[in-house]
Specification:
Blueprint (H helix, E strand, L loop, with lengths): L2 H12 L4 H8 L3 H9 L6 H10 L12 H6 L3 H13 L3 H14 L13 E8 L5 E9 L13 E4 L15 E6 L8 E6 L2 E9 L4 E7 L3 E7 L4 E10 L3
Parallel strand pairs: 1-3
Antiparallel strand pairs: 1-2, 3-4, 4-9, 5-6, 5-9, 6-7, 7-8
Helix pairs in contact: 1-3, 2-3
């Protein structure tokens, strides 16, 4: 994410607004706003200020102010104690990097604005054999991540292009939440025939599901539910440009 995207997302969450609501208010598409928040879309400073003003961020100087000025207007007093507790839980290396980044910015926690609303959770990125290859810091909102226990969620590194027809490519990072039963229409992570797969699920009846993949062509296989070990439901995909 970009620092500016973080700030917009933080203020949107503070106002309890969805991306759809903010996009409509600001006269931009929902996909554009989501890309800005994710840091995959460049946004001009003046447009960012308009968005922040629209969602209720108070300005120190309406005529002229920098992005640092905008960051200062975030109510850090409420969230700094929580951020401090989150920092204590980080490995020493990340704690040092966080301290250095806040000193450089001149605004406590300004590059970690997602953490300001709650607590940072260090979520592992797991490979195909379920070994952590890296970590990503994710905000915990109301004690949950995507409605799930923060200790139970993880990112899964897509090992191939078998799901690219469903917008998951090799190397994409998929956020998953626990699910031991099939969810109709969901992309799920599962154990099947001694291998681990990402597949889209279609429930056929109380005994069978259709496992769907789409690389160069659509493929589907009818499988008894009893033959599958469901691990998690995929809720978000993060990709690198």
């Amino acid at each position: 994410m970009s620092r500016l995207g973080d700030l917009i997302r933080t203020e949107r969450i503070r106002q309890k607004l969805t991306t759809k609501q903010v996009a409509k208010k600001c006269g931009v598409s929902e996909s554009y706003l989501a890309a800005v928040e994710a840091g995959t879309r460049i946004i001009a400073d003046d447009q960012a200020r308009r968005i922040l003003k629209t969602i209720g961020l108070k300005q120190q100087n309406e005529a002229e102010f920098t992005l640092d000025d905008i960051a200062v207007t975030v109510d850090l007093a409420q969230v700094q104690p929580r951020l401090a507790e989150a920092v204590k839980k980080l490995p020493k290396k990340e704690e040092a990097e966080l301290a250095a980044s806040t000193d450089d910015e001149g605004v406590a926690g300004s590059v970690w604005l997602d953490a300001l609303q709650s607590v940072l959770k260090r979520v592992p990125v797991m490979n195909a054999v379920m070994k952590p290859v890296s970590y990503r810091l994710v905000p915990v909102e109301n004690g949950r991540i995507e409605g799930a226990n923060p200790d139970k969620v993880f990112f899964y590194l897509a090992p191939d292009d078998s799901m690219r027809g469903f917008r998951i490519h090799k190397g994409d990072i998929v956020l998953t939440v626990p699910a031991q039963s099939p969810v109709d229409g969901a992309v799920m992570l599962m154990n099947y025939k001694e291998h681990r797969y990402l597949r889209k699920i279609k429930i056929l009846d109380d005994r069978n599901v259709l496992l769907q993949a789409y690389d160069r062509a659509y493929e589907a296989e009818t499988v008894p539910i009893s033959d599958i070990g469901f691990l998690a439901r995929c809720v978000q995909v993060i990709f690198e440009l």
